[in-house]
Amino acid sequence: MSDNLESFRAEIAEWIAANLPADLKGIPHDEDAICWGGRNWVFKSDAQRDWLERCHGRGLTCPRWPTEYGGGGLSRAQEKVLRDEMVKAGAPSPLESFGIWMLGPALLHFGTDEQKATHLPDITAGKIRWCQGYSEPGAGSDLANVQTRAEDKGDHWLVNGQKIWTSYADKADKIFALVRTDRDAPKHLGISFMLIDMNTPGVTTKPIQLISGASPFCETFFDDVVVPKEGAIVGTQNRGWDVAKYLLTHEREMIGGGGGGLTAGSSLAEMIGTRDALVSEDPIFRAEAMQLEVDAMAFGLTMERYKDMAESGQGVGDASAMLKYYGTELNKRRHEIIMSARGLDALDWDDGAAAPWLRTKANSIEGGTSEVMLDIISKRVLELPSK
Amino acid sequence: MEKLVDTEDEAMLRDAARGFLDNFSPVSAFRKNRDEGRAFDPALWSEMGQMGWAGVLVGEGDGGSDMGHRAAGILCEEMGRTLTASPFISSAVIAATTLRAAGSDHLSSIATGETLYALAVDEGSKFAPSRTAMEARADGNAFRLTGAKAFVAEGSTANRLLVLARTSGSAGDEQGLTLFDIDASRAGIKQDSVETIDYRDFINLSFDNVEATGDDVVGDVDNGLAALAPGLRAGQAALAAELGGLSAGIAAITLGYLKERKQFGRHIGSFQVLQHRAAHLFAEIEVTTSAIAAAGRALDEGSENAALLSSLAKARATQTAKLAVMEGVQMHGGIGMTDEYDAGFFMKRARVGAEWLGDYGHHAAIVAAHRGL
Ligand SMILES: Cc1cc2nc3c(=O)[nH]c(=O)nc-3n(C[C@H](O)[C@H](O)[C@H](O)COP(=O)(O)OP(=O)(O)OC[C@H]3O[C@@H](n4cnc5c(N)ncnc54)[C@H](O)[C@@H]3O)c2cc1C
Question: What is the value of ipTM here, to two decimals?
Fold first, then answer.
């Protein structure tokens, strides 16, 4: 490792030590502890707000984004060091959002200077919370079949239609949505990627409860929603599919990364907790757990390798489908093992293992199902014949 | 062994059960129970009593219908298909079989369904009766029970309990355990409710110096595992049948969806990858169904293979149900993840069924040992 990186490591470790509020040190990485930001965000504690503000001040909410938008301007090597040091210090992520994971990368690639200047600083500061309006009742795996339409009314678009499975739509400030702007074109060529404020009259949401008990996703309705044209469309009108796909590769890496061995905060043993000898000596448990550790570690390295490839200019492209497929199936396996290792204890909601276990079942559905990922790999990466 | 197909009587029983459950206990009834915060519907249970289900394993002399274990399995398969919640396995199978083997006189009220039994064995996070630590201290002619029982099925509704406790030796010894049949309201028993993921009635119980007399002992003192063995085997076979039915239930819902949902302008059931997985699931269910039927037959015939086959059935059914619910949710896409849809209920009950009365590892080890491994 270069001297530069070592001095960066020392500097960042010192910064974390000086700035991480004591109350946040080592808090569990569960859903409740996440800071999502946004206009209506109520901080869980002063410490959570302080940590967000301090990290944002240092560009650490989006370490790799350009500094002009509130990012850290770090190289990938520096970002790795930062992540290591954050884990070492027991520091939670200061901010998570669909803006960071999905919209930001798409804007950096396709956005105009004006769109970047308008939206990216609000994302890095945690001021605006975005949601993703892709899926519709008739457009899930067949995403290009979206029917929500935006009619050209001169100075504005008039949007009508329905989205479904919109995660956190009821809590989000804005939505990036796929809308049909040309009904006569072939289905992939009539879609635009549109930014819409959720406060606009005519936008309503209805929460849908998940099997894990929580209610984080919604139906989202658009009834005669007026969207001023200025800056509304990202990329080229009617070519929103390109933006959508680009964004999906980021989303898929992110979801797949949830199953990462090296990147995941806690080890399997930690997640299981102290167990009865009956469990630790059960050959079936041992075989499954051992295989999981082997696969998870190698998968973590694969995530690293793909990021290294991307940085050295070798496009990852459709192979991100592999990361999404593998990582999510791995994560499902992990939680099955945790459930069975915790045995009867885990059958009590209060034990806390069941809700995350049930939630992982969505990992292989959201952001494109495992079947769709395997389809992408076989058709586009392996170029298998379709007839 | 009697054939592994339903006899004429059994086929009639299955049809009748299916008709009754489709009418009075479809999955929507389970949802209603869940929403109203009750583990099962007492009116439904009383109907089951009248139809002879509660007395399925009670002799006719005690007012039972005495239809046998295979019949009990058929009822469980059908109840599993619609996620019917009832104290059937705890009371009509485990308690009835245990007490009948011991010549108890509590059988007639089990047969009517008026007396509800719960089995209080587990103490740790895994099923392991010989690890029982609860103390039953001799006190003159009586015993004093002190300790805790975890995750007792039907624990909050049962009026009687079968409790396994230690009269000698220490946790891990097969000997030195004694089975007691006591009233659930006896002084010193405290209930601690559990919010179970399948919304059924499970509870933790603590015992503080609870009195049991010599009359309360089932079988012999210090030989409780032997007294419990017939009931456990029967319970495991019945639970396997429930899980088999559950697998068939979610598979049927999933097949229906594959034929109905369209993407890319086609039924998703026309995609070969889903066809093959549905076909694979069918194969797994068929293989498990045989083990379930054989376990029921072996129990009815008093075969020396009954324990092996009950474990085989429970091991198979646990894995098949896991596959069926995972495929069920996955093949539905987003809607399968919603509480509004039923698939999640099947997934949660399958997880509870996987643990209760011994998990896959427990039963697979028994099968392997029988096979000389
Ligand atoms: C928890 C959760 C959060 C979500 N959040 C969002 C969000 O924020 N925004 C958003 O826009 N969407 C979101 N989604 C929606 C998600 O992207 C869709 O559910 C997903 O793309 C699948 O679409 P579908 O639900 O319509 O299933 P369908 O497409 O109907 O799929 C049903 C089944 O058919 C299979 N199938 C479909 N086509 C094929 C094929 N060609 N070959 C083989 N099998 C096939 C699927 O793999 C699946 O198993 C979320 C979903 C979940 C579960």
Answer: 0.96
